[in-house]
Design a protein that fits this description.
Blueprint: E1 7-13, E2 23-28, E3 33-40, H1 45-65, H2 82-104, E4 112-120, E5 124-130, E6 134-139, E7 142-145, H3 152-158, H4 164-169, E8 189-194, E9 200-204, H5 206-209, H6 214-223, H7 227-240, E10 247-253, H8 261-269
Antiparallel strand pairs: 1-10, 2-3, 3-4, 4-5, 5-8, 6-7, 6-9, 9-10
The structure holds calcium ion.
C-alpha cells in the first residue's frame, strides 16, 4: 500500500492523577487517517467508548476509502466533497455503535466520547469532530485552532458571556454540549483545509490543552525535528504541569519542500531572515 509523505506519530499517556487512560488514538498511514478520542462514563465505560470510536472509524474508513471502488454514503449534503461526506458518515456510524452498546449493557449506560478525525493528503485535509478534542495547524510560526469545542464554556465565549481567559479558568470546562454515543443522532462538524509544505497538524485531547498553554504548544511544533520528538515533548510537558487528565497528542507534518544545497542550509539556519 502507498504511504503518504507525512511524518506521523501519536502518543497517549494516563497522566499523573487518573487511574485509567480513557483517551485513545488511531493512525492509518496508508489512508492518511488520524483519530483522537477522549471517553467518559462510569467504571471502564470511558475506555470502551473511545476505543469503539477509534476502531469503528479505522474499520469503516478502510471499507469505504481503502478499496478500488468509490463508496459514497446515501443522504447528506450532495454539494459537499465526497471525502467530507464519507468522514461525516463514518463518525455517525461510530455514534450509532457506541449508542447501541450503551443501551444494551447497563454498565455502559451514559458512556460517550469526543472524537476528532482527520483525512489528510498532500493537497488538503478533511476534518470531522464532536466534543472538545481539537485539531490545530502550525504554519509560518503561528498556531491556529481549526476546530471549535462543543463545550458549555466555549458556547459562552462565542456568545460573548465570558472571555476565553475566563473559560480556561472555569470549573465548568468539562461540560460538553455534544459527545459521541450519548444521543441516537449526532451533528458532526466537518471542514476542509488546504495543506501547504511544512504544515504541522496536531490532534489532541483536553488533557494537553488544559495543561500546556498554546504558545508553548506552538513552540514545540515549530522547534521539534520530527513528529515523534513533538509528541514526546508535548506529553512530557502536560505531565510536568501536573498531568491532571489523560493526555494525547498526534502530530502529522507535511513535507517541507525545502531547498537543498547551501541556500537551503542557510534558510534552515536562519528561517525568518531567509
Ligand atoms: Ca479528557
Amino acid at each position: 500500500m502507498k504511504r503518504l509523505p507525512f511524518d506521523i506519530e501519536g502518543k497517549t499517556d494516563v497522566g499523573c492523577v487518573r487511574e485509567r487512560n480513557e483517551d485513545c488514538l488511531g493512525i492509518d498511514s496508508s489512508l492518511g487517517l488520524l483519530v483522537v478520542a477522549d471517553g467518559m462514563g462510569g467504571h471502564s465505560s470511558g475506555e470502551v467508548a473511545s476505543r469503539l470510536a477509534v476502531d469503528t472509524i479505522l474499520e469503516y474508513s478502510k471499507k469505504m476509502l481503502g478499496g478500488d471502488k468509490l463508496i459514497v454514503p446515501e443522504g447528506g449534503d450532495s454539494s459537499l466533497p465526497v471525502r467530507l461526506r464519507q468522514l461525516e458518515y463514518i463518525v455517525q456510524v461510530a455514534n450509532t455503535i457506541i449508542f447501541e452498546k450503551a443501551r444494551a449493557f447497563p454498565k455502559n449506560h451514559g458512556m460517550g466520547t469526543t472524537v476528532v478525525a482527520v483525512l489528510v493528503d498532500p493537497k488538503s485535509l478533511a476534518v470531522a469532530h464532536v466534543g472538545d478534542s481539537r485539531l490545530y495547524l502550525q504554519r509560518g510560526g503561528q498556531l491556529q485552532q481549526l476546530t471549535e469545542d462543543h463545550s458549555l464554556v466555549m458556547d459562552q465565549v462565542r456568545q460573548g458571556v465570558i472571555t476565553k481567559e475566563q473559560a480556561e479558568k472555569s470549573n465548568l470546562q468539562n461540560i460538553l454540549t455534544r459527545a459521541l454515543g450519548t444521543e441516537e443522532k449526532i451533528q458532526v462538524d466537518i471542514g476542509e483545509h488546504p495543506v501547504l509544505p511544512g504544515d504541522s497538524y496536531l490532534l489532541c485531547s483536553d488533557g494537553l490543552t488544559k495543561m500546556v498553554p498554546e504558545p508553548e504548544i506552538s513552540r514545540v511544533l515549530e522547534e521539534s525535528a520530527s513528529a515523534t520528538a513533538a509528541v514526546e515533548k508535548l506529553v512530557a510537558m502536560a505531565c510536568e504541569a501536573g498531568g491532571q487528565d489523560n493526555v494525547t497528542a498526534l502530530v502529522a507534518r507535511a513535507p517541507s519542500g525545502r531547498q537543498g544545497g547551501f541556500k537551503g542550509f542557510l534558510s534552515r539556519l536562519f528561517p525568518r531572515s531567509a
